[in-house]
Inverse folding.
């Protein structure tokens, strides 16, 4: 089945630094979603992308839908301690109707 | 209540017990999902209900039995589980295409942390 490669697996950064993570797929998706999961909680939707090339911001978060429709990235600017968590990308497969999730990027921020 | 709620938040059960997980969505969505989240693994889709009809069973063992009495409620009945079934079970909902607005965005509940002893 379809798989998403999400990288990096984990990041340990200093407060105030910018962060970038990305997802790539061997297949085309028509929607990319980015989620954040705090420990002991469910994933929370951060950004949804629906058009190839689309660049969308949500506060300090910016995500882009790759022009090939096979990749997406998420940037976090000026990180703060509450950005700690696991970030997941998800692509919507228009053929199966399923959301395919990446393995997650664990972010740790040192104050 | 808003969003997607799940009860209980934590559950410890023996291998011979029968228990049920409950999910309720307050978003007016028409599709609901069960996912399993194990450590170091991507989210695994278990079941999909679209307009109360089960449309997906992702090769899930029969010891997991879903029930969707209406578009707002979803249950997962558990029976004779194995220790490897210990995981976080997440419920999600979305609004699938139905004559107008649609979104592939899925909204998750907080999950039930299940431990099978």
């Amino acid at each position: 089945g379809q798989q998403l490669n999400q990288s990096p697996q984990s990041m340990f950064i200093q407060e105030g630094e910018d962060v970038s993570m990305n997802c790539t797929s061997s297949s085309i998706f028509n929607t990319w979603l980015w989620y954040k999961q705090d420990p002991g909680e469910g994933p929370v939707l951060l950004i949804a992308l629906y058009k190839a090339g689309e660049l969308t911001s949500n506060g300090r978060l910016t995500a882009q839908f790759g022009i090939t429709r096979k990749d997406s990235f998420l940037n976090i600017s000026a990180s703060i301690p509450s950005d700690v968590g696991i970030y997941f990308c998800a692509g919507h497969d228009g053929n199966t109707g399923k959301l395919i999730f990446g393995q997650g990027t664990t972010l740790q921020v040192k104050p | 209540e808003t969003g997607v709620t799940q009860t209980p938040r934590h559950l410890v059960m023996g291998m011979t017990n029968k228990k049920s997980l409950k999910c309720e969505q307050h978003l007016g969505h028409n599709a609901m999902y069960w996912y399993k989240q194990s450590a170091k693994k991507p989210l695994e889709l278990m079941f999909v209900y679209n307009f109360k009809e089960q449309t997906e069973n992702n090769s899930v063992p029969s010891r997991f039995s879903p029930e969707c009495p209406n578009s707002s409620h979803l249950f997962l009945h558990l029976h004779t589980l194995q220790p490897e079934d210990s995981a976080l079970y997440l419920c999600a909902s979305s609004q699938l295409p139905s004559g107008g607005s649609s979104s592939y965005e899925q909204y998750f509940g907080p999950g039930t942390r299940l431990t099978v002893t």
Notes: The radius of gyration of chain B is 14 Å. The interface with chain A takes residues 4, 6, 40-43, 45, 56, 90, 92, 96, 103-111, 113 of chain B (CB under 8 Å). Chain B has no helices and eleven strands. The CA atoms of residues 55 and 81 of chain B lie 24 Å apart.
